Amino acid sequence: MSVQVNAFPADSIYNLDLMLLDKDGNEKEFNKLSGKIQVFAMIYTNCKTICPIIIANMKAIEKLIPENDIKNVNFSLITLDPGKDDVKILNKYFKNKKFNNKIWNLYRTTKEDTLKVALTLGLKYKKEKNNEYTHSNLIILLDDKGVVKIHHQGLDKNYSKMLKTIAEISADLH
Amino acid sequence: MFFQKIIIIFFIFFIVCFDSFAKDKTDMVLIPSGSYIPLFKYGDDVLDDESIDVDSFYIDKYPVTNIDFYSFVKKKPEWDGNNFKLIFADRNYLNHWKNIDSFDEINNYPVVNVSWFAANEYCLYLGSRLPTLDEWEYVASSGKEFRVAKDDPSYLHNLLDWYINSQSRGVISIDKMTDNYWGVFGLHGVVWEWVSDFNSVILLNTDAEGGGLEEVLYCGATATNAVDPADYAAFMRFAFRNSLEADYTINTLGFRCVKNIK
User: A157 touching B, CB under 8 A?
Assistant: First the structure.
């Protein structure tokens, strides 16, 4: 029997063993996203209508988090389209969107692991014949251990539950 | 020298024989490339583009059985009913293995109560993978005698009977299963089966910019937009898949694996 190395809860998504590549080309183990509250979504850069709204709403959440709590929070995006979204494209997208480099990051992983992350979070997506993706529009709140706390409808502008939960988890982290 | 050659030739012959025997044992069927017409159109602008092309692949002749899965669990104890992580399977995982008098009784029954993650790991462990939705539907679109099941109304009728009358449904031993045109057993009438991209069936809460699948499926339900309204069984499969999450384990949901050609 192997010794249990990671100590994540049984329902933590960080039990997934996979590598991410960030928008600067740095490799990062998926479970290294732990330790911070994650406001998380899966998008793709060529997405013209829904993804920009999801991102705008994530930015709105960012602005509403008090100074004291924001240091416990990261905003992470993984592309649904690793075939097209290489590091260069992710980097350009990141700059265009003017994300705060300190708390935002944009990642890609293999096609197989993209599916695993999506399935673990209950996200649906389908590549259409025109190379666009039909996909769930969800913003997901993960606690510092990788347990899903909230599935927030990506277009819903009522963030009160999201903000309240972030404040609660953050209070435990102080 | 001569004898050495004979021995070498014999040895090679033996390897070839053994190899073909090994392939036989994997019990996979070669499915040639082709196309099938899925239940739903993918938008109004693709009338001449309704069929989906599928490359050739090998598929398990039978669903994965309890004894198959038991061997896997023995090698991979992290997938044991006591060790598995809740993120990868719900609490019902392998529940039917508890409280049975003898494992022998269910050896050759398709394994059920397995999550997508468990099924996926099983296939990867054997150097294979879960079929894609299109691969599965392509093989399942054949009847008994006909490559395309809809050319065989009686076959479709029986199929519908099974899908509608849940009482006739039940997990049965693989040697009681019937095969289809390709010699693939138990695709219909026994258990539902996982496909790798089951989460590509999207009914609610979606970004529909990518072709309006949501609308198509909704409309599909009225059969006005369905490519083949007779294929109600396929609609039920789509609806079932839409209701799944990857950690779900269900006592009528099993799986089989496929392998790439090469």
Answer: no
Give the contacts of B226 (CB within 8 A, at least 6 positions apart): B39, B40, B41, B220, B235
Domain ranges of chain A: 25-173
Summary mean pLDDT of chain B:
79
pLDDT tens profile B13-47: 444 444 333 334 459 999 999 998 876 544 444 44
Give the gap in angstroms from C-alpha A13 to the nearest C-alpha of chain B. Answer: 7
Kindly tell me if the per-residue pLDDT of B216 is higher than 80: no
In terms of CATH, what superfamily is A25-173?
Glutaredoxin (3.40.30.10)
pLDDT at B1: 54
Q: Is residue B2 part of a domain?
A: no
Residue B16 lies in a domain: no
Backbone angles phi, psi at B99, to 5 degrees: 55, 35
CA atoms within 13 A on the CB side of B68: 25
B258 contacts B59 by C-beta, under 8 angstroms: yes
Predicted confidence (pLDDT) per residue in B69-117, tens digit:
999 999 999 999 999 999 999 999 999 999 888 888 899 999 999 999 9
Count structural domains, chain B: 1
Residue B111 DSSP one-character state? P
Closest among A131, A129, A136, A72 to A103, alpha carbons compared: A72
Taking contacts as CB-CB distances below 8 angstroms, the residues of chain B near A132 are 209-211
B187: in domain: yes
Query: Does residue B22 lie in a domain region?
Result: no
Residue A146 binned pLDDT confidence (cut-offs 50, 70, 90) = very high
Those of residues 58-117 in A touching chain B at CB distance below 8 A are 115-116
